Amino acid sequence: MEHTHKKPSLGFSLIPIIFLVLLLATNVYIYDEDSSYGPNQMALLFAAALGAVMSLPLNYKFDEILDGIVKSISSALGAILILLMIGSLAGTWLISGVVPAMIYYGLDILNPTIFLLAACIVSAIVSIATGSSWSTSATIGIALMGIGQALGISPGVVAGAVISGAYFGDKMSPLSDTTNLAPAMAGTDLFTHIKYMAKTTVPSISITLVIFLIWGLSIEGKGDLGNVEVVQTAIDSKFNINLWLFLVPAAVIFLIVKKMPALPALFIGTLMGALFALIFQQDLLAELAGSSQITLESAYQSVLTAMFTDVQIVTGDVAVDKLLSSGGMYGMLYTVWLIICAMVFGGVMEHNGMLKCIAGHIIQLAHSTGSLVAATAGTCITFNLTASDQYIAIVVPGRMYRQEFRERGLAPENLSRTLEDSGTVTSVLIPWNTCGAYQSSVLGVATLSYLPFCFFNIISPFMTIFFAYANIKIKRIEKPSES
Predict the structure, then answer these.
(1) DSSP letter, residue 326
(2) Closest CA to 209 of 147, 264, 164
(3) How many domains is the chain built from?
(4) CA dist 89 to 191, 247, 265, 407, 461, Å?
(5) In a domain, 85, yes or no
(6) 3 assigned to some structural domain
(7) Residues 176, 132: contact at Cβ < 8 Å?
(8) Number of alpha helices (DSSP H) and beta strands (DSSP E) in the chain
């Protein structure tokens, strides 16, 4: 006999969400910035288990819930494969000198007369190259803070410039975990997401750069650029830095422009990184393999190791050593774990109708595209405030609004862009969020002191909402049939 599923009420549907938020808040309190490396994954699984148990009074069988979980995880397999390939690409781009070259030449644009503008641009370049706003702040960011102090610029302003640039790079880098997570949750692919996100991100960073340019021109004095020279010297001591290395990222960009799928494009970029390492960095490959000279065996070992696990270039400078490191495929496993656990939670909550119920009550107030995007952005910021984790601020709203965007004929990249424009960038503005706590600790500036000067992070959510209300660059798809 066929059984009928009951529709959950709003209060009933909120219980797993509230339980998840409480677990996440506990994890942040106990584990601090390490909460994303296991505790939050377990929180998602515990909340999913609660949601599954609560599905029983709604007349759902366990096999039905399990089927929903499997379908949910299956939808993210493409993103997981891309994440793993990006780990390998990051490894070969490090040992080939591609990433160090980006950092090396990026530091050349520092000029005391336009320091704030240059600090923002350099942070952006380094973050794009590394895919990490955290690594950028902990390395180049610290050096820039020292230079800003020598110039007599307020630490909060300098930190605002560093964070603005670092989060722009984090958003636009295919190496970034959040940049891979957002399209996975929304149902689009990595490079479509990046290209579409550029439409709101470029105006936001442009306004930011103009502000810092005008501000910086009023600053007089000459700073000590010794910290920058130390970084460049350390890089130069280990790598053969030259402009030929830029052929590797240029080739990948060319393939993307020619609409090659992300996975083969990244695979080709990984192999090119390995080839350029063999051509330009033979001494480094021998050193990494523990050999006195380059051999076929040592070259193979160094390249393969860079692809699948941790690689650390030791220069003698602790700060630079942090920058010149990569986790390979292994370094992506925590994010892969997070995605799988998020899809388990999302699969349960979607299949039993709870996410649809919660989103439905919010969507009732969102009659237009602009108000839907504003509701999504507001939900992301709310999760940053309550769950204290940028990943959750992407994952949960992504699952909540995915179906509604589709039913309104909005391409999934509209959702993925909103998730990043509001979820990723605002996390650093909240003192008790893992991102805000980390940046404050590393840069030595209180979160509320740098918050007013993180112009890019403040502008981004308003920019994405403005584009939606003004119907600018809103890609549409055919609405699903009602049958």
Answers:
(1) E
(2) 164
(3) 1
(4) 15, 14, 10, 36, 30
(5) yes
(6) no
(7) yes
(8) 27, 2
Residue 141: inside a domain: yes
Q: Are 213 and 455 in contact (CB under 8 A)?
A: no
CA separation for the pair 305, 337 (Å, rounded): 21
What is the residue-level pLDDT of the chain in tens, covering all 483 positions?
456 888 999 899 899 989 988 988 888 788 876 777 888 889 889 999 999 999 999 999 999 999 988 988 887 787 788 778 878 888 898 899 988 887 788 777 766 678 899 999 989 988 888 788 887 887 678 778 867 775 678 899 999 999 999 999 999 998 888 898 899 889 888 889 999 999 999 999 999 999 999 988 776 655 556 667 788 888 899 999 999 998 998 888 788 777 787 788 889 989 999 999 999 999 999 999 988 888 999 999 999 999 999 898 988 887 778 778 888 899 888 878 877 887 788 788 888 888 778 877 887 887 889 999 999 999 899 888 776 678 888 988 888 888 889 989 999 999 999 999 999 999 899 877 778 877 887 788 888 889 999 999 999 999 999 999 999 888 888 776 654
| CA separation for the pair 203, 197 (Å, rounded) | 11
Separation of alpha carbons 99 and 371, rounded Å: 40
DSSP 76: T
Distance set, CA 53 to CA 12, 62, 181, 348 (Å) = 12, 9, 27, 10
Query: Is 476 strand, coil or helix?
Result: strand
Find out whether 381 and 457 touch, Cβ atoms under 8 Å. Answer: no
Residue with tokens 């102090």: 149
Domain extent at residue 185: 78-331
3-state helix, strand, coil in the chain (%, to 5): 80, 0, 20
H or E element, residue 61: none
H/E stretch holding 176: none
Question: What pLDDT sits at residue 3?
Answer: 65
State the sign of the Cα–Cα–Cα–Cα dihedral 323, 327, 331, 332: positive
Give Cα separations from 280 to 244, 248, 288, 291, 309 (angstroms): 9, 13, 14, 17, 22
How high is the pLDDT of residue 183?
A: 92
Q: Which residue has the tokens 């004095």?
A: 221
- In this structure, is residue 411 part of a structural domain? no
The residue among 167, 150, 168, 148 whose CA lies nearest residue 158 is 148
DSSP bridge partners of 312: 325
467 vs 458: CA distance, rounded Å: 15
Please tell me the predicted confidence (pLDDT) of residue 226: 63
Sign of CA dihedral 229, 233, 235, 241: positive
Q: How far apart are the first and last CA of the chain?
A: 24
Instruction: Let me know: does 143 contact 156? Beta carbons within 8 Å.
Output: no
Q: Would you state the structure tokens that stand for residue 468, as one six-digit string?
A: 């939606």
Phi, psi of 38 (to 5 degrees): 135, -55
Nearest to 241 by CA among 252, 249, 233: 233
